[in-house]
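ENCODED BACKBONE
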Amino acid sequence: RVYVVVPMWPEGLPESGSVQAILDWQRRTMEMMYKDVIQALRAQGLEEDPRNYLTFFCLGNREVKKDGEYEPAEKPDPDTDYMRAQEARRFMIYVHTKMMIVDDEYIIIGSANINQRSMDGARDSEIAMGGYQPHHLSHRQPARGQIHGFRMSLWYEHLGMLDETFLDPSSLECIEKVNRISDKYWDFYSSESLEHDLPGHLLRYPIGVASEGDITELPGFEFFPDTKARILGTKSDYLPPILTT
């Protein structure tokens, strides 16, 4: 099972041509990955939801207004994304981490982005660190070292809760539960009304997956909340495909 957390949209104005082009390539990448998952399942004679094996998330926050809450003197310009987000009290949490945890055994944390600046080799300086504990590997029993503890604390921070199923993220029960929670949190995040604080920050990435692996819009969500930016992105008419920001 693979759990992937990405930004709701890349750094920059979500309606801009460069961000929309990146989102378009992101959609194509997700589509390629889901098609591979579905092909592998069908090779085994299985017809299952591919999100039970590969699922994408983003992070967001939403809080009700509290009595005595600080209010800045300046207000955003009217009819702007920032004003709409403030009125809805809805904000994405930007994901900047380049990190992967494998089987609660191994962790790698780095600085490189998948772009020309990081990957060129002669521009930005980058570094990555990988680590494991030799006495906490899953030979006869699940790994229960510090990497497991860190992953559990991270899930607690993002989901706002602990559950026994989280101990085994490779289980069907775990990924189905995390998907159900993140689906519910997306509904809370994107709803018109706000009755209480968002209980956690892990949101379903707002896409659908068709039976053949094609990435589709979630019903009612062509655009990110509070913006005029298409979630699936737009193919650029003027940025060359070789360009990455």
Observations:
- The CA atoms of residues 152 and 167 lie 8 Å apart.
- The helical segments are 17-43, 81-88, 116-119, 146-159, 172-190.
